[in-house]
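Thread: quick sanity check before group meeting

JM: Hey all, I'm pulling together slides for Thursday and realized we never actually wrote out the predicted structure for the chain we discussed last week. Dropping the sequence here so it's in one place. If anyone has concerns about the input, flag it before I start.
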Amino acid sequence: MSRAVVLHVGARDEVRSLPKDVRIRLGRALMALQRGFTLGMPLSRPMPTVAQGVQELRLHDESGQYRVFVYPKAAEGVLVLRAFKKKSAQTPLSELSITRRRLRELTDA
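JM (edit): ok, ran it. Output follows.
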């Protein structure tokens, strides 16, 4: 059983701007989530500070660290909420609030 991957309109452009090799690894991770697999560290980390069930996919290449916030438990499928290049040790509060807003927009929660 495979579930749909639904990208927030803002996340679509963000994902397109990621380096190609990071996008390829993101695609593999999303495919695993579509098929119902549970991802763990170091690839995925729960982000309850955003919302229960939201995960942070942790990807990197020689140009830096990238984060993609996903919500795999939505009725619509695997929601891709936000993608960005990480520039500091702690995830900025602005990134968390953008992700929360996008989750509300896609789930009407």
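AS: nice. The radius of gyration is 13 Å. The chain has a mean pLDDT of 92.
JM: adding both to the slides.
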